[in-house]
């Protein structure tokens, strides 16, 4: 896959997962690389569990909006939200998503049911050029904190080869935007996320 300096990334998850933090780090990394960046919060809920959607557009886009069929990369922090966001994916787009679900309140209360993960994965593969599901929460724990799942996904995103920068830029941005006590955990997280994608590729 060839890296490009003009790309649209659609991010989706639920409140409490650090989706907006990941958006800010991704946008800042592009800025640190000297690239033009437009970013925005499409839909956000302050309370834990609410849907959060955001965008990062790199390469001179004027609007932060991404319409259906325009996202080159879909970064999903929760598989059900990844499923809901598939219409945003452009032809030839790539999905990078957590494989670990966070049960919505309606499901926890027995009012609704979630589709099996296998069905979500199959639908994603039918829409995308490539799909990478990684156990982001579990890998975050391995890095040192479950909250680092968002950085696991950023590392995985960089590893698919479409972003105009790699892990070294992401690591430098983490050092300049986060408190020093968070550096080691989050840098380890992006490395584990990248490794997960490399393993995924080697299995095919």
TrEMBL record:
<dbReference type="Pfam" id="PF01558">
    <property type="entry name" value="POR"/>
</dbReference>
<dbReference type="InterPro" id="IPR019752">
    <property type="entry name" value="Pyrv/ketoisovalerate_OxRed_cat"/>
</dbReference>
<dbReference type="InterPro" id="IPR002869">
    <property type="entry name" value="Pyrv_flavodox_OxRed_cen"/>
</dbReference>
<feature type="domain" description="Pyruvate/ketoisovalerate oxidoreductase catalytic">
    <location>
        <begin position="15"/>
        <end position="195"/>
    </location>
</feature>
<dbReference type="GO" id="GO:0016903">
    <property type="term" value="F:oxidoreductase activity, acting on the aldehyde or oxo group of donors"/>
</dbReference>
<dbReference type="InterPro" id="IPR052198">
    <property type="entry name" value="IorB_Oxidoreductase"/>
</dbReference>
<protein>
    <submittedName>
        <fullName>Indolepyruvate ferredoxin oxidoreductase</fullName>
    </submittedName>
</protein>
<keyword id="KW-0670">Pyruvate</keyword>
<keyword id="KW-0560">Oxidoreductase</keyword>
